[in-house]
Specification:
single chain, alpha/beta, Rossmann fold, Dihydrodipicolinate Reductase, domain 2, 3 domains, 11-stranded mixed β-sheet, elongated
Length: 440
């Protein structure tokens, strides 16, 4: 059978890895797909560099639309990234009857509803395994492997840059700014790391997983997003003393009132597998009613790990290329006419437990005043840790840190209590609040 022909838009880190892995493992991939898969056309603004990557036998152009217009191309791989031109090109490829494979989580998290609807109407596939957690096949697991389950919750370390930074802060006791510079020097963080360190990248990814897990539209604009820029080294140290590690988590949960969709730093018990994911690695925990809790771990970025996911999508599309569109796996696991209208819950309605750090005056009655105010708000305390004043501020200090772990409480209730605590004259600095996820 004639090989399926693929056009590649963008041959940067992931694109070059995709080309190399496809070349290296072509015979095994052909045996699995049932026919050959060949990248026959590449579009990149740097034509000379692209030609050096792919060699002879592959047509290289500087216009992505020339790839889309080529009637011989069956599948278009979009590796340009971003929201702008990538959206136009993907929609044009769909309109031209091409299947699309993309690693662009930002595009799908923001414009996925439009793109999937266009693909459904045209009877083509949009595959995006590489958009979430690099080489970890989490999309396939959620969409196919766990299809018998009612998914209850997902929690993931899905940004390697932030996990590397938090691991270094914990191991070396360094502050955020120092570790960020080191991460940039080592190539773990971009020159402009905003999307990573502010939690946006993780929010794109958990938005896609939430849609697949619960059969809801992609709704990135309703996600709660916090990054790690305000984390202090002492909070990482205190968390460790209490038996926890701080991780930037993407969390989505099914609740009776709706769906939780949030990204923020979280205390995770040190005994949990997720707490022990270090460096730039990724991991996702999924809880289903039938299977229980499952863990998916691996490299979340990089040339060949991400290429592994891109090529897995190419194989899937190749296998199903001639299949009736109605019998393919739906983009978001649920058939488009069976999507749920469950609302995304505002953070004020989320129920979880908390770590609180209060810098307070080192005088009698302060602890009783703080715990009494929390009790009056109906917030139950799990543990209290009070530091020695000279340990916090040096010999003769009149200030100390009071660390409180709460039981589950509604965030809106806690917000009201924190406002009252902050107004106390004995509370001397802004209160630090970090959410806690037991993942049990």
């Amino acid at each position: 059978m004639k090989p399926i022909q693929v056009g590649l838009l963008g041959i940067g880190t992931v694109g070059s890895g995709t080309f190399k892995v496809l070349q290296r493992n072509q015979e095994e991939i052909k045996r699995r797909a049932g026919r050959g898969i060949e990248i026959t056309m590449v579009a990149d603004l740097d034509v000379a560099r692209a030609k050096a990557e792919v060699g002879e036998g592959v047509q290289v152009v500087n216009d992505a639309r020339a790839v889309i217009a080529n009637p011989a191309i069956d599948i278009v791989i979009e590796l340009i990234g971003g929201y702008g031109i990538a959206r136009e090109l993907v929609l044009e490829a769909i309109a031209a009857g091409k299947h699309v494979v993309t690693a662009n989580k930002a595009l799908l998290a923001v414009h996925g509803t439009e793109i999937f609807a266009a693909a459904h109407a045209k009877g083509v596939m949009v595959a995006f395994e590489a958009a979430v957690a690099g080489g970890i096949p989490i999309i396939k697991a959620l969409r196919e492997g766990l299809t018998a389950n009612s998914i209850q919750w997902i929690a993931g370390i899905i940004n390697g840059t932030t996990n590397f930074i938090l691991s270094e802060m914990r191991d070396k006791g360094l502050d955020f700014a120092t570790v960020l510079k080191e991460a940039q020097r080592l190539g773990y963080a971009e020159a402009d790391p905003t999307f990573d360190i502010e939690g946006v990248d993780a929010a794109h990814k958990v938005t896609l997983m939430s849609a697949i897990a619960f059969g809801i539209p992609v709704q990135f604009d309703k996600a709660h997003v916090e990054g790690i820029t305000k984390l202090a080294a002492q909070d990482i140290k205190y968390a460790e003393q209490l038996g926890y590690r701080i991780k930037l988590l993407g969390v989505t949960k099914r609740k009776a009132q709706g769906i939780e969709l949030r990204v923020h730093p979280s205390l995770v018990p040190s005994k949990r597998l997720l707490a022990n994911v270090e460096g730039a690695m990724n991991a996702v925990v999924v809880n289903g009613d039938a299977v229980g809790t499952t863990l998916y771990y691996g490299k979340g970025a990089g040339s060949e790990p991400t290429a592994s996911a891109v090529i897995a999508d190419l194989v899937d599309v190749t296998r199903l290329h001639t299949a009736d569109a109605a019998h393919r796996v739906p983009h978001l696991a649920f058939h488009p006419d069976s999507m749920s209208d469950l609302q995304i819950l505002p953070m004020s309605e989320v129920v979880t437990s908390y770590y609180l750090r209060l810098r307070v005056a080192d005088e009698a009655g302060v602890l009783a005043q703080v715990t009494g105010l929390l009790a009056n708000a109906g917030i139950s305390i799990d543990a209290v840790l009070q530091r020695e004043a000279d340990e916090v501020g040096g010999e003769g200090s009149t200030q100390t840190d009071l660390i409180i772990l709460t039981h589950d409480t509604r965030e809106g209730t806690l917000n009201d209590a924190l406002a009252q605590l902050q107004a106390l004259p004995t509370v001397l600095a802004p209160i630090v609040r970090i959410r806690k996820e037991e993942l049990s």
